[in-house]
Design goal:
single chain; 447 residues; alpha+beta; six-stranded mixed sheet; six-stranded antiparallel sheet; 33% helix; binds flavin-adenine dinucleotide
Length: 447
Amino acid sequence: MTQTLHIIGGGMAGSEAAWQAANMGVQVVIHEMRPKVETFAHRTGHLAEMVCSNSFRSDDDEQNAVGLLHWEMRAANGLIMATADKHRLPAGGALAVDRDPFAASVTEALKAHQNISVDYGEISELPNEGHWIIATGPLTSTALGAAIQEETGADRLAFFDAIAPIIYADSIDMDIAWLQSRYDKGDTEEERKAYLNCPMTKDEYEAFIDALLAADKTEFHEGETAGYFDGCLPIEVMAERGRETLRFGPMKPVGLTNAHKPDDKPYAVVQLRRDNAMGTLLNIVGFQTKMKYGAQTDVLKMIPGLENASFARLGGIHRNTFINSPTLLDNQMRLKSKPNIRFAGQVTGVEGYVESAAMGLLAGRLAAAEILGTHMTTAPLNTAMGALVHHITGGAEAKTFQPMNVNFGLFQPVDGLKGGRRGRKDRYKAYTDRAKAEWQSWLALQA
Ligand SMILES: Cc1cc2nc3c(=O)[nH]c(=O)nc-3n(C[C@H](O)[C@H](O)[C@H](O)COP(=O)(O)OP(=O)(O)OC[C@H]3O[C@@H](n4cnc5c(N)ncnc54)[C@H](O)[C@@H]3O)c2cc1C
């Protein structure tokens, strides 16, 4: 019993975790509730079902962070990537996948593995002993969600994400924006300059509200409910409540002086705040939104200072169960209060098929190493895998933690390279070259 790895959830993360651990010689049981217990989004009883789009996004491993993650997973003999490659559909530079044959192939490969068995049924309580990985995804069953909440505390498990857009700091026009906390609050210079402010005139504000009201919005999926609270209303819903609502909410202009034009009183101010410890990513405070992605970039680029903004991720509100990983998990992805349990996949606060599978890959290897009695360090910080796991287990701001895609804003800068838009190509190539070398070395340690 104690030497078997039990994985709850056979989705992207659970499937990859099982494959990795089994290949290291560990016995694995996957506990999957479907098809006995269904979710509103899954349609089949297959493992690794893609619930919505059939895309693994960019496959460019030199200039794109998710493409780099593909590369790292392929180099680590990842089942999800190998199967996606086998069922690839034409999609330009993206990796699109023929979803049903993909999921059927993953299921078949796992069931055919001599070290893996699949036990169909819901797990509704947290196990007290043995080695476990919880990879139950954004639609974790209600009973297990309640058990996790009981263990971690009510405010450490979210049932919806409310994502404000995240912007690369170096794409903001600092001739327009300035750094200042409202009323210069804070004990240190860093705290007094914790916010980046973008000012609006009355005309700019009115035009912004018009665009917001007219923008295309995403509907909730069937079975999702608009269960968000007043504390995280989408900006367009606030605007619908009255044209001045935002000016008295997240865009209030009080306690701030425009550093570039001290005599001009802004009519409204959009504030951005650090989203990671390095300060390379900033989120727009209070700007969770259900605007469609195209409309969202058009509307947000109307904000003075953000005309040329690059978005690390766009905003959204979805049904999504995830834990506050920065406070709850150690860097081995173990629950600090019950270290016999690891978490992996979307439930850890990463976002997307690829990121979820990647976290499964890492958790599977770490758990197997522990069972085999060999110490394995977590993924190196300068790899895509490492940047992502570091973000969720410590790099992200715990108080405002929301799900994250892999992106270059999570990477440590490479010394001596030009910042901003013009240096981007060389910078990204340097990140990906460095990541590939470090990933290969990490893999070699385990060979
Ligand atoms: C409606 C919706 C649309 C989405 N669209 C996209 C998209 O287009 N692109 C994208 O990249 N990502 C999308 N996502 C996010 C997507 O779900 C994740 O990227 C990915 O599937 C997460 O992988 P995972 O392994 O963490 O979870 P999942 O793939 O969801 O796997 C979790 C598994 O755990 C099982 N499970 C849950 N609770 C229990 C339990 N108590 N006992 C046993 N089994 C259990 C579930 O049945 C499921 O099979 C979407 C999510 C939702 C909800």
